[in-house]
Design goal:
Strand order of the largest sheet: 7-1-8-9
Strand content: 15-25%
Largest sheet: 4 strands, antiparallel
CATH topology of the largest domain: Ribulose 1,5 Bisphosphate Carboxylase/Oxygenase
CATH superfamily of the largest domain: Ribosomal protein L1/L10, rRNA-binding domain
Shape: globular
Helix content: 25-40%
Oligomer: single chain
Number of helices: 8
Number of strands: 9
Radius of gyration: 19 Å
Structural class: alpha/beta
Distance between the termini: 39 Å
Length: about 230
């Protein structure tokens, strides 16, 4: 059964659909206007890239600490021993452990948003590769390293990971909450787009940033003109 939307939603959707793409500030305003739920809606962004996701040398992946964070403090757990475990705990990790924590993860006894680990623990974690999928710690995503205290602190401060979908030239990410002001959302979006531009594969041909859409959790998508996303307003 199709979901029924209220008059406000339908009016905004019609306005958006009749205007093609929007400049950043106007798009942000529309997304905030559409975020009328009783909770603080997340502001999402979907980016269509001019890459061939079937080619190994055209994968886009990286990490970024948004200027204004994400509006959410993620639950970060760390697999480590010794000094690294102590550093992770001091940095605010929600859980720290080694073989015991791995067993809990395997048994679905612990919930988390981000899993980080030291390189020496990856051999033990490897058996959970299929279970964890994209949540498996990875050096490319910045979730594996010897300085676990720094890694945990960055994730707690609003560091995000961006990556194209395994078989699609699409990146999904968040840029904050509806409670953020327009400047914060714009600056977070600009930071993400700059990071994606820097991550452009050398083999990508033609137009690289092909489409950008903003939306709130419960609101309609608002298409943004990629050529008008830049610092200082657009």
């Amino acid at each position: 059964m199709a979901k029924k939307h209220g008059k406000r939603y339908r009016a905004l959707a019609e306005k958006i659909g009749a205007n093609g793409t929007f400049a950043v500030d106007e798009a942000v305003g529309l997304v905030k206007e559409a975020a009328t739920a009783k909770f603080d809606e997340t502001i999402d962004v979907t980016v269509i890239l001019g890459i061939d996701p079937k080619k190994g040398d055209q994968q886009v992946r990286g990490t970024l600490t948004l200027p204004h964070g994400t509006g959410k403090t993620p639950r970060v757990i760390a697999v480590a021993k010794g000094e690294a475990a102590t550093a992770a705990e001091a940095a605010g990790a929600d859980m720290v452990g080694a073989e015991d924590l791995i067993a809990q993860i395997e048994a679905d006894e612990v919930q988390f948003d981000v899993l980080v680990a030291t390189p020496d623990m990856m051999r033990l974690l490897s058996r959970l590769g299929k279970k964890l999928g994209p949540r498996m710690p990875n050096a490319k995503s910045g979730t594996v390293g010897p300085d676990l205290g720094r890694i945990v602190a960055e994730r707690k401060q609003g560091q995000i990971e961006y990556r194209n979908e395994p078989k699609a030239a699409v990146v999904h990410s968040i840029i904050g909450k509806a409670s953020f002001d327009a400047v914060q959302l714009r600056e977070n979006l600009v930071a993400l787009m700059d990071a994606l531009q820097r991550a452009k594969p050398s083999g990508a041909k033609g137009t690289y940033l092909r489409g950008v859409t903003l939306s709130s959790t419960m609101g309609p998508g608002v298409p943004v003109d990629p050529s008008r996303i830049k610092g200082g307003g657009a």
